[in-house]
Amino acid sequence: MEKHFELTDKVFKNQFTQCTLNPEIFSHEAHLRLAWIMINDHGIKQAEKKIHAQLQHFVEFVGAKDKYNKTLTIVATKAVNHFMNQSKSDNFKDFIVEFPQLKTNFKQLIDNHYSFDIFNSEKAKTEFLAPDILTFD
Q1: What's the first-to-final CA gap in the chain, in angstroms?
Q2: Which tens digits make up the pLDDT trace of 57-68?
Q3: How many angstroms from the chain centroid is the CA of residue 24?
Q4: Angle at alpha carbon of residue 24, lines to 47 and 21, rounded to 5°
Q5: Are 23 and 62 in contact (CB under 8 A)?
């Protein structure tokens, strides 16, 4: 089990928002969990805006600004929302068990939407690039 699970959703979200979350526990799964929490708390549109702004602030605060990718941040939130709309889970632990492909095959899931590599695109880092193969619902 990943270390971010040692924190409640509220504590996890607050520590992230306040930049007190240990960056070593902010894994890919933790990023998905943040999206899940924010969508539950604010709905998809506000979650996208909040995660984008807060993640930019967080990576700058911890000295990892070069790792931020705006397209990937928004797409990850959209992907979590897509699966949340199909989910029977009422907590993130059950949700990620229900949809493990978000954790284990994330790149492949995203590649189904794009004909180009958003993971390594300089343009994708600074602006949102809409999918050119399959849009998100």
Answers
A1: 30
A2: 999 999 998 989
A3: 16
A4: 50
A5: yes
